[in-house]
Specification:
The complex is a heterodimer of chains A (152) and B (153). Chain A is an alpha+beta fold. Chain A is 22% helix and 47% strand. In chain A, strand 4 and strand 5 form a beta hairpin. Chain A starts with 5 loop residues before the first strand and ends with a helix. Chain B is globular. With 153 residues, chain B is of the alpha+beta class. Classes of the chains: A alpha+beta (152), B alpha+beta (153). At the A-B interface, strand 1, strand 4, strand 5, strand 6 and strand 7 of A face strand 1, strand 4, strand 5, strand 6 and strand 7 of B.
């Protein structure tokens, strides 16, 4: 037999941002805003960004002296200012390392927004794991908070 | 319109089949094989089913009871290892309303002359249209169909 394996893992990240829901939503929905906090940064925008049900998002980034990662999304459900559901694959140097289902829910709370990200992942063949993915996602939600705080 | 809600849930079903992994895998891997067991109750009649079984390929199945609501399944294959595993995401619509988004893993392991199958599904059930218990039961019914199909072919 081969060394193929599947590790199932799930995690939740919750945040309350001191910004109205329309502003938090726009940070996910607009390519020019999302690139400023998500993933590779503003100088490495996604190659594809189709924010609609059935649409795709695709980006690639290389860690200096390290591996190249590909992030490929299919959006499955979008309700403005309310929720985003998508699946995504990650590849490292061309090898598939994970397949995930992500749900991001938004609740307006006065002029603040509560965000809950629920992610379920399959980590393939020992190439990644849920603890690492959660850590990376926590970092992204912190970056989102800094981006929101730094913009009008 | 129903109030917006997302219910997160997962289920796992384990089955043993007498047939070897390549036989069980084949039941998932070609359109004609899959159509023989992957369908709704007999009274629904034949669903409209199309499948492109490769990574990135799509699958659709549209059907329902005569005169009743139309269920649409739309899947995309995300990982395939022959005779070992199949990973796909899918969404379900009922009369055009999205009712769920799910990620499914099917793992096959040789077990003597037969196969041990583990079916794991994580779902987000939307706006109260469907619920995890119903989906798990529907999946058990499909795997019963699969067992009968394998026994007859």
């Amino acid at each position: 037999m081969s060394d193929h394996s599947v590790a199932h893992g799930t995690f939740i990240v919750e945040r309350t941002y001191n910004h109205p829901v329309e502003k938090v939503w726009a940070a996910w929905a607009r390519s020019d805003l999302k690139r400023q906090w998500f993933g590779g940064g503003a100088d490495n925008p996604p190659k594809v960004f189709e924010f609609r049900p059935g649409g795709r998002e695709s980006s690639e980034g290389t860690i200096p002296n390290g591996p190249t990662f590909n992030f490929d999304v299919v959006y499955q459900d979008i309700v403005p200012n309310n929720r985003i559901l998508y699946n995504y694959d990650m590849h490292m140097d061309g090898k598939k390392i994970s397949v995930s289902l992500a749900a991001i829910e938004f609740w307006p709370e006065g002029r603040q927004t509560r965000l809950k990200l629920t992610e379920y992942g399959l980590f393939l063949d020992g190439l990644d794991n849920v603890a690492q993915r959660k850590e990376g996602t926590v970092g992204l939600m912190d970056q989102l908070g800094r981006f929101l705080d730094g913009t009008r | 319109m129903k109030p917006r809600s997302v219910t997160h849930a997962s289920f796992t079903i384990k089955r043993s089949f007498k047939q070897a992994p390549d036989r069980v895998f084949a039941a998932f891997a070609t359109e004609s094989n899959k159509q023989a067991w992957f369908h709704g109750p007999d009274e629904w009649g034949r669903d409209k089913h199309e499948m492109d079984f490769r990574v990135g390929g799509r699958e659709t199945s549209v059907g329902g009871p005569p005169g009743g609501p139309v269920s649409s399944f739309r899947g995309i294959y995300q990982d395939i290892v022959p005779d070992e595993r199949i990973v796909f995401s899918y969404d379900m619509d009922l009369d055009g309303e999205r009712i769920s988004v799910s990620l499914t893993t099917i793992e096959l392991k040789r077990d003597g002359a037969g196969t041990h199958l583990t079916y794991t599904e994580q779902g987000a059930y939307l706006d109260g249209w469907d619920h995890p218990d119903g989906r798990e039961q529907g999946t058990r019914d499909l795997l019963d169909n699969l067992e009968r199909y394998l026994g007859q072919n």
